[in-house]
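User: Here's a chain of 193 residues. Predict its fold as tokens.
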Amino acid sequence: MGTTVDAVQSGSTDAKARKYVGLGLVLALIALVLDQSVKIIVEQNMRLGQSIEVIPGFFNIHYILNPGAAFSIGEDFTIVFAILQSAAAIYVIYLLFRKVLARSWAIALGCLLGGVLGNVVDRLFREPGFGFGHVVDMLSVNHFAIFNVADSFIVCSMIAVAYMLIRGRNLDGSIGDPPKKDQSDKGEAEPNA
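Assistant: Prediction complete.
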């Protein structure tokens, strides 16, 4: 009887996990397509360095190419950023497929994955060459860095991740520290305190 209950619970957990993997991957795809579409539109309709005022004194569309990281830091390490971003994408995919059992985590990690992939695509497939590509940036808020749609997804998802970690929300949806394994199940005696 206990085996049947465990099998049913395991089956429902697997179905839930698949649903959340799907949600995360769909959001990642939406973020990636949106990011790359905006970049293509900017490239086809603007000159490099051109700026279009959208909200006077606050927000512009300003087309630049960024070989570095945020705020154009590390322009000589483009290949390192490509490798680190690829590793981050692989780790997020691992979490989605193996650990996530909560909708909130699937949403946050899906958006993070899409944002990371948006910039990885630039690093791998844009000029000047594979692994050294420059990221297309275009969103310019006065007195702040110029960024892109992928960066927005990354920042917003990381804010959500930080919030969930502060609140103690685990990848499986539980709150607080995971329960400790019972030593008596392994035939080991509990230490006397």
